[in-house]
Amino acid sequence: MRKLALRDEILLRVDKPARYIGNEVNSITKNKAEIAIRHAMCFPDVYEIGMSHLGIQILYGMLNSYEDTWCERVYSPWVDLDKILREENIPLFALESQDPIRDFDFLGFTLQYEMCYTNVLQVLELSGITFKASGRGEDEPIVIGGGPCTYNPEPMADFFDLFYIGEGEARYREVLDCYKENKASGGSRVDFLLKAARIPGIYVPRFYETDYHPDGTIKSMTPMAADIPEKIRKEIVTDFRAAFYPFKPVVPFIKITQDRVVLEIQRGCIRGCRFCQAGQLYRPVRERDVEQLKIYAAEMLKNTGHEEISLSSLSSSDYSHLPELIDFLIDECQEQRTNISLPSLRIDASSLDIMKKVQDVKKSSLTFAPEAGSQRLRDVINKGLTEEAILNGARLAFAGGHSRVKLYFMLGLPSETEEDIAAIGELANKIAAEYYETVPKAKRNGKVQIGVSTSFFIPKAFTAFQWAPQATRDEFLDKAYLARKGISAQLNQKSIKYSWHETDISVLECVMARGDRRLSASIMAAYKNGALFDAWSEHYHYHTWLTSFTETNIDLDFYTTRKREDDEIFPWDFIDCGVSKEYLLREWKKAQAETTTPHCRVSCQGCGAAQYKAGVCL
Amino acid sequence: MKKLRIKFAKYGAMKFIGHLDMMRFFQKAVRRAGINIAYSGGFSPHQIMSFASPLGVGLTSKGEYLDISINTEEPDIEEIFAKLSEQMVEGIEIIAVSELSENAANAMASVAAAGYTVIFNEKKLSLGSENIDWVGQFKSFLQSKTIIYTKCTKKVTREIYLRPLIYEAVVNAENKGIYLLIDASSANSIKPQFVIEAFFDYIGQHLPDFSLDICREEVYANAGTAEDVCFVPLGS
After folding, report:
1. Closest Cα partner for B65 from B40, B41, B96, B38?
2. B164 touches chain A (CB under 8 A)
3. Which of A257, A280, A378, B165 is the most exposed place for a label (fewest CB within 10 A)?
4. pTM exceeds 0.90, yes or no
5. Is the distance from CB of B110 to CB of B55 less than 8 angstroms?
């Protein structure tokens, strides 16, 4: 029997001990003696969040499909165990073998959101791994980062030996082979990193040097080693038919956030919403083969025993074989009483039809994401959604029995005026009115429930808005107040519930999203000052961060509210995400001119993603 | 529709998995095994599955029971046993599958008593070295007319008269363990810890946290009457 890393007493003292024992169905155990590479894969947040992530399941399955590699999982210990590990000097361990992470060859992190950065430092420290990559000894694991945040990896540059830019399926094997060869030939850590830096998609921060202008903006970024690229181009899967898919995902004992089979139907998005980073990073959109998806779905349900399957993509409605896939799933699932959930659907006649087939109308609420209240501002952000389409969708939905609607908006979008904010309340009111007009009194089940939720806009790297200043904290508060006032002024205000996200987190996220490598020192300082689990509002302390920025001489406004010139060199410009800066600049200008851009299937905008010769670009 | 009773053991790392998660584990395992389980009707159908008696986190067991209903008129018990066993993890082991008669009471309603072995964790507790005749003490403890245990929850404090709920207590001085057969019925169920805590109160000692290793040996139904009990394992 496996010996657990933690004593019974500790496991009985902490919340949800199942987070730390491994042993889940479909988790993989190998014989250490037959393994050349031990890889720990970390989602730097608590187990229930990390286990819900499809990307990790893909990489876990793929790496374990290699005979010479054993990939294990590790997550951030929750604050209760964190304290005990420190007090008792127990090294952080991997779930499968319960062995210390420190003994592994690789420690991989997926960076899914900026607010997990201090958790990366927690995992390093609890594992006994040197914080700074350049100070790590020969026997320490190679720390590798991937995921959307690595498209601007610079704030975390100090802590990673290498970043993998792009999709893991493409080049991971080469990295492992390079490591094995280097080890066999007696090469050092730096030897390996030098060789790895020549693999397409691999960025080794220590081999690049950044120079700054006196005003703090970047002058240049220079490779400091021979034969390493000036620009690192993202690597992607060009043909999914040959790519790995996790047939047997790990089934946790405890309820996790995404407690279901996740079927990724496509990667990327054809729509060019100007605020959306994922829409650019994952270009070009690549659909998975529908016949293959049918097999995956059936296999995964059989292998997990899950009661629900969810389709995953940035915009499910744009998947060309959606009706066929849904019909198959309905047939497949009926007998087994499996639920089907369909997030990210655009609300129109055909999607309502699909929803009616797969889920209970009375229970589900509809979600619209107009993002902006007025048509003018929706044009600025290129959200191809008209008021008419929203009201039409709402009318159809109400007629079909729905009575709950959620609306998502952003505050602080570029060029936003008071009228745009007032339009949020007006739109919500029109939707409510639509309900009372569509549904006769006798059929109503109380009031219509409209939930309006606003978040604060965060300009991100590799979007048309990467040049845009973020609104200040005070402006954000004023905007939220205006939105509330606008809603209160409506005739149907009693049917509308308003909620908004916190401002402080949005400011920090903005700093990280467009930050440079000088921020590594601030993140380190914040961690030392106690910042951890920043993505959890009850653990997030804005003042800890403010103090840490001051200590490390970082001026927040430089990263958030400063206006950037068209030709400014950004910290992430040395990464080629497939979409050219010229295209993004064109989009930025078009936004200022309030002009929209059609999506990829209507006409190609020459964004640059066609270089991959894949998906919609073919 | 047929009713089946499944007996399983729980040990090792699995003792940290709580009751609700064990239910989820079996729900998924049954689906993976492709067992033709029956579902309830209504708005949100769920598997017809019920556990005899929840086992606390931290306890192991050699005798856990759950009942399921299946839509098969002539079930192949051996095949179901094999299919289900295949879906277990280390620390959960199917011991037996048996068919119940149509009018059999469900597992939970049948439970009357449960047997436990309580072992004192040596690292936490050194009863042997303290010159206490704890074997003798335990005997005289059991002879007390009343044994009162005060149960404190967040909301209420309740006094439980333990003595009539202890059916059997065997002290094994060798491995510093005690076998307890105690009430586990829905009306009067008590935990083995209650008895041990009451004993420590009795000898004027403090029972340190996490000092007991407890294994549920078997769960029993009462084949006799309320006055004249006759405990038989739930699986028989």
Report:
1. B96
2. no
3. A257
4. yes
5. no
CA A198 to chain centre: 27
Assess contact for A314 and A344: CB atoms under 8 A.
yes
Q: Does the CB of A224 have a partner CB in chain B at under 8 Å?
A: no
Contact present, A332 and A298 (Cβ < 8 Å): yes
What is the three-state SS of chain B? CEEEEEEEEECHHHHHCCHHHHHHHHHHHHHHHCCCECECCCCCCCECEEECCCCCCCCEEEEEEEEEEECCCCCCHHHHHHHHHHCCCCCEEEEEEEEECCCCCCHHHHEEEEEEEEEECCCCCCHHHHCCCHHHHHHHHHHCCCCEEEEECCCCEEEEECHHHEEEEEEECCCCEEEEEEECCCCCCCCHHHHHHHHHHHCCCCCCCCCEEEEEEEEEEECCCCCCCCEEECCC
**Paired tokens of A486:** 């606008």
Termini Cα distance of chain B: 21
Strand, coil or helix: what is A253? Answer: coil
Q: What is the pLDDT of residues A242-289, one digit of tens each?
A: 999 999 999 999 999 989 999 999 999 999 999 999 999 999 999 999
pLDDT at B130: 58
Question: For A17, which of B16, B30, B43 is closest by C-beta distance?
Answer: B16
* pLDDT band at residue B132 under the 50/70/90 scheme: low
Query: Considering only CA atoms, which of B198, B75, B186 is closest in space to residue B138?
Result: B198
Each residue's pLDDT tens digit, A365-375: 788 899 999 99
Query: Is there a contact between B24 and A25 if contact means CB atoms under 8 Å apart?
Result: no
CA distance B181 to A507: 61
Picking from A12, A25, A253, the nearest residue to B21 by CB comes out as A253
Nearest to A23 among B31, B34, B89 (CB): B89
pLDDT the model gives residue B127: 57
Count of CB atoms situated within 10 Å of the CB of A481: 12
Residue B171 has pLDDT above 90, yes or no: no
| Residue contact A23–B14, C-beta within 8 A | yes
Cβ atoms A574, A165 nearer than 8 A = no
Hey, what amino acid is at B199? F
Helix or strand holding residue A294 (H, E): helix A290-304
The B residues from 14 to 43 touching A (CB cutoff 8 Å) are 14, 16-18, 21, 24-25, 27-32, 34, 39, 43
With pLDDT > 90 as the criterion, what percentage of chain A qualifies?
A: 89
Contacts (Cβ under 8 Å, ≥6 apart) of A26: A248, A249, A250, A251, A303, A304
Neighbour count for residue A33 (Cβ, 10 Å): 5
ipTM of the modeled complex = 0.94
Q: Is the pLDDT score of A478 beyond 60?
A: yes
Beta bridge partners of residue A339, listed in sequence order: A308
Tokens representing B113 are 């008593």
Which residue of B14, B19, B30, B32 is the best one to mutate when testing the A interface, meaning the one whose CB has the most A CBs within 10 A?
B32
Characterize the bridge pairing of strands A218-223 and A208-212: antiparallel
Distance CA B127, CA B131 (A): 8
Q: Cα dist. B210→A34, A324, B121 in Å?
A: 38, 56, 8
CA dist., res. A286 & res. A441, Å (int)? 46
Q: Which of B20, B31, B46, B59 to mutate to test the interface with A (most CBs of A within 10 A)?
A: B31
pLDDT digits (tens, 9 = 90+) for A107-126: 999 999 999 999 999 999 99
Give yes or no for A84 touching B (CB within 8 A).
Answer: no
Residue of B205, B208, B232, B235 whose CA lies nearest to B221: B232
Contact B43 A360 (CB under 8 A): yes
The mean pLDDT of A83-105, rounded to a whole number, is 98
CA dihedral A126, A130, A133, A138 (to 10 degrees): -110
| Averaged pLDDT score across all residues of chain A | 95
CA distance B60 to chain A (A): 12
